[in-house]
Amino acid sequence: MTDAGLSSRVQRFITTHIDSIEKLEVLLLLRARTDRAWSASAVALELRITEASAARRMAELKTGGLLLQDGVADAYRFSPGRSDDVQDTAELASAYAARRVSVISFIFSRPMDRVRGFADAFVLKKDKDGDGHG
Question: Which of 11, 91, 114, 124 is buried most deeply by CB count within 10 Å?
Answer without folding.
Answer: 11
